[in-house]
């Protein structure tokens, strides 16, 4: 038996699988995010440990006989968070999360430093770990002076479980300290961010073993002695393992809180200027690229909140695919990553009319999100990624209308997986299987069964192409107003 433990922003998910990767039981525990100032986003790592303990103990209560046979645990987690420890391994301050934008000035300065983009393969975004430490040096010098180790969120859980400070390549690629092409810490990047190599965890492949679980922790969780903890991966890399996206041509679109289009790559093909993320995959000798928008279903959730109407009710009012709405929504409620790298821009409605009703606003919001994802697709194509279809995952895919709309806007067939586990927790469990047994990832990380494929609507494809052109022209105009 094997466990995948996925640390998300809103909660922890623990998944128990057999050695073939079949899901047997799962348990979840929620998390809260603190926003002490505008643009700030933090969590207490102690809450991660408490939530993980709760989820794993709940899993043990559901399947005690199977949990007694667990051999390995793999990790997945939200990326980019900066968890700082002192020389005794104690947490110095709350973790600054991926969606925190306070370090935008430090990110811009680091992004302009010589060799940084070339070595890291990426623009330096404010959400990355390196500018956060630069912000600490400027604004919290007493804390910065005590930093002995910097750990990413899931790696703090690994530290709790094993006592060893380790990270994997896929998560570390989002720090701006890793040479992403060479798959190792870069002295030049560390120096540019005023950091030292001894402050970094050991970096290994996602399929490698960190070490055995501490005996006291295993006893507390109801697990046998000798369970091996496997490094795992950042959430999107782990999700790619969960859906079998390992090779050129494999990819998925995720309609979650944020929106992602991910393309697996056999080689290293960065294009930092496009604001495409180019990261190491969680399996050896592979990479992946993704375009990221910060508010996907979050945009619909925002509309639901201000209208007092649940998201499913909003989208449920849309049945057959309509021509593009007269109103246009620019989905930059939290700024934007791909392709703009703009933490300051904000969202807008354009073209509202006295006749605009709730259904049209809903339509405009999900069209705006879909156009934003097409921005990411076009940026990925600019790097040479060749995607002929995409797996569609995430909560937004519960709306049939949105899936058909997105297929039409992207001009690609979207495959809907059959019911079952296929996310980051499954990817983490699959990484554990490979790490403990030595199994080939290509064999373990199979693609899910497809329930249905949604093709672009041929009657409306041209109209949505034209609407996308109008959408692209709106960002410069909006930016000029701010």
Written account of the structure:
- With 482 residues, the protein is of the alpha+beta class.
- Helix content is 37%, strand content 21%.
- The strands form seven sheets. It has a seven-stranded mixed beta sheet with strand order 17-18-16-15-21-22-23, with helices on both faces.
- Helix 11 (235-242) packs across helix 16 and helix 14 (358-382) crosses helix 15.
- The termini are far apart.
Provide a concise account of the structure shown.
It comes from Falsiruegeria litorea R37. The record marks 6 as: Important for activity. The protein has 482 residues and is of the alpha+beta class.
Q: What is the third-level CATH name, the topology of the largest domain? A: Nucleotidyltransferase, domain 5
Order of strands side by side in the largest beta sheet?
Answer: 17-18-16-15-21-22-23
Report strand %.
Answer: 15-25%
Count of discrete alpha- or pi-helical segments spanning 4 or more residues: 18
Gap between N and C termini: 54 Å
Domain module tally: 2
Q: Main β-sheet: number of strands, strand sense, barrel status?
A: 7 strands, mixed
Helix content: 25-40%
Number of beta-strand segments: 23
What is the approximate shape?
Answer: globular
The CATH architecture of the largest domain can be named as 2-Layer Sandwich
Quaternary state reads: single chain
Radius of gyration: 22 Å
Q: List segments where confidence is low: pLDDT < 50 over at least 5 consecutive residues.
A: none
Structural class: alpha+beta
CATH superfamily of the largest domain: ATPase, nucleotide binding domain
Pfam families: FGGY_C (PF02782), FGGY_N (PF00370)
GO molecular function, one term: ATP binding
Organism: Falsiruegeria litorea R37
Protein name: Xylulose kinase
């Amino acid at each position: 038996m094997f466990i995948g433990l996925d640390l998300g922003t809103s909660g922890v998910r623990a998944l128990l699988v057999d050695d073939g990767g079949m899901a047997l039981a799962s348990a979840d525990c929620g998390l809260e995010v603190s926003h002490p100032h505008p643009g700030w986003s933090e969590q207490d790592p102690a809450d991660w440990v408490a939530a993980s303990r709760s989820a794993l103990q709940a899993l043990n209560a559901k399947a005690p006989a199977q949990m007694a046979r667990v051999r390995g645990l793999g990790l997945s987690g939200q990326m980019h968070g900066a968890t700082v420890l002192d020389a005794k391994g104690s947490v110095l301050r709350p973790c600054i999360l991926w969606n925190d934008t306070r370090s935008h000035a430090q990110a811009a300065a680091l992004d302009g430093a010589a060799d940084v983009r070339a070595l890291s393969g990426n623009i330096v975004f404010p959400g990355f770990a390196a500018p956060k430490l630069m912000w600490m040096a400027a604004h919290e010098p007493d804390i910065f002076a005590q930093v002995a180790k910097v750990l990413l969120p899931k790696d703090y859980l690994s530290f709790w479980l094993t006592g060893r400070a380790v990270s994997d390549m896929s998560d570390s690629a989002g720090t701006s300290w890793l040479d992403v092409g060479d798959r190792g810490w870069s002295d030049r990047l560390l120096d540019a961010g005023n950091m030292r190599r001894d402050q970094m965890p050991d970096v290994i492949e996602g399929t490698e073993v960190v070490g055995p679980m501490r005996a006291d922790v295993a006893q507390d969780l109801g697990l046998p002695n000798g369970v091996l903890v496997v490094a795992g991966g950042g959430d999107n890399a782990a999700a790619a393992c969960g859906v079998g996206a390992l090779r050129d041509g494999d990819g998925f679109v995720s309609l979650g809180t944020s929106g992602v289009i991910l393309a697996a790559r056999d080689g290293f093909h960065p294009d930092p200027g496009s604001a495409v993320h180019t990261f190491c995959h969680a399996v050896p000798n592979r990479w992946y690229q993704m375009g990221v928008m910060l508010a996907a279903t979050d945009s619909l959730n925002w509309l639901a909140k201000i209208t007092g109407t649940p998201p499913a009710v909003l989208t449920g009012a849309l049945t057959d695919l309509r021509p593009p709405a007269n109103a246009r929504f620019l989905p930059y409620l939290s700024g934007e990553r791909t392709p703009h790298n703009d933490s300051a821009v904000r969202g807008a409605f354009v073209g509202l009319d006295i006749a605009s009703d709730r259904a049209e606003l809903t339509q405009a919001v999900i069209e705006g999100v879909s156009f934003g994802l097409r921005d990411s697709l076009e940026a990925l194509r600019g790097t040479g990624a060749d995607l002929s279809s995409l797996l569609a995952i995430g909560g937004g895919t519960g709306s049939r209308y949105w899936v058909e709309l997105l297929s039409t806007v992207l001009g690609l067939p979207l495959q809907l997986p059959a019911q079952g586990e296929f996310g980051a927790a499954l990817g983490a469990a699959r990484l554990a299987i490979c790490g403990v047994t030595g199994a080939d990832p290509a064999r373990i990380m199979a693609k899910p069964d497809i329930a249905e494929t949604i093709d672009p609507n041929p009657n409306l494809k041209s109209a949505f192409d034209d609407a996308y052109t109008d959408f692209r022209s709106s960002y410069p105009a909006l930016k000029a107003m701010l």
